[in-house]
Amino acid sequence: MKKLISLFAAIVLVSGLTSTAKAQTQGVTTTATGSATIVTTLAIAKSADMNFGSIAVNATAGTVVLLPAGTRSATGGVTLQGTGTGVAAAAFNVTGLNNATYTITLPTTYTITRQTGTETMTVNGFNSTPSSTGTLSASGAQTVAVGATLNIVGGQVPGTYTAAGFPVTVNYN
Question: What is the pLDDT of residue 24?
Fold first, then answer.
């Protein structure tokens, strides 16, 4: 009987030492807050078209450089005509979130075509005031003026040259 009690005690002892640990069965939870801020949409609207004015050209190619301030100069065989009547840089009204900054993206090239023909001239060298980044006023507005360079071949065929509008893109920073 002593052996039986010793065996029973040994089984109880081994059972107690080899019990398995149980994993936690309850989860732990916390929360996070979600939020969003809706801002005023950034918008751009043309307020003036670009006009290089009247130009004469001889047999030598040249350019007309139109600055965002609306002043122009000529190179090569190009002569500016008149007093600049009608000459204008393009202008755009940008509106959006008060005091916000934004980027300005201008085209790299633009082609204008003679209204009664197929002859073309290339416009490039686009620049603006403000240049690549603007800041809206406390009331959420700013005007962007855009100038460019008109490239004229020697003996360019006379006429009025135009094309559909060129793109100016603005995006919030």
Answer: 62
